[in-house]
Structure formats: C-alpha cells, structure tokens
Specification:
This protein is mainly β. The protein contains no helices and eleven strands. Strands 2, 4, 5, 6, 9, 10 and 11 form a seven-stranded mixed sheet that branches. It has a four-stranded antiparallel sheet with strand order 1-3-8-7, with no helix packed on it.
C-alpha cells in the first residue's frame, strides 16, 4: 500500500511562515497530481493548492501570492511554503496524492498536520 506522512505544522504568529512536507512511501509506480487541502473547525475541507507531475500549479484565491506548492519527484514529496500567514489560515492541513501503484490508480490521504496562526 501507499502511505502519506505530513510534517511541519505548528503554532505561528500572524505574518509568520511555515513549510509543510508530505512524503509518500510504499508501492509507488508514479504519482500524478499532488494536492494540499485544509479543514478548519466547523467548515468543509477545501482545496488549497495543486501541483501536477509536470510542475504546473494552481491555488485557491485565498492563498495566491502567499503560499507556494512544490514537489520533489525523486523523493515522492510535496511541500507547501506558507508565508504571510493569517489567523484564517488556521486549520488541519492534509496532503492528497493520485498514485499509480502499477496495479491501479488511487487517491491517498495523509493523516493531517495542524497549523495554528495566533498571537
């Protein structure tokens, strides 16, 4: 199977920065799109950023210009650099990957990492 493990969350003051990482491991033939989602208490999970295997990116309007998604295909890892953080960015952040295992293509989720923006 495939596992996604996130890291890098924590508590940061408004205006600060954090870098999230998500490493995929297991039976991986190829990873297609990799995404970051977030879910705040009482709200639906929302797509934050997407990166294709070729490096094309797309962002939610609320994070454009502040967040940058990137990936290292050799390490099967996706990153989310978050700058100029705001209290409304507080949420659990989840990575999602579309993985071809050689047998099938499925979506996998990480366990989530908490980001709290507060003074």
């Amino acid at each position: 199977q495939v596992q996604l493990v996130e890291s890098g969350g924590g508590l940061v003051q408004p205006g600060g920065s954090l870098r999230l990482s998500c490493a995929a491991s297991g039976r991986i033939f190829r990873i297609n799109d990799m995404d970051w989602y977030r879910q705040a208490p009482g709200k639906q999970r929302e797509l934050v950023a997407t990166i294709t295997s070729g490096g094309r990116t797309n962002y939610a309007d609320s994070v454009k210009g502040r967040f940058t998604i990137s990936r290292d295909n050799a390490k099967n890892t996706v990153y989310l650099q978050m700058n100029s953080l705001k209290p409304e960015d507080t949420a659990a952040y989840y990575c999602n990957a579309d993985v071809n295992t050689g047998w099938a293509t499925k979506e996998y989720w990480g366990q989530g990492t908490q980001v709290t923006v507060s003074s």
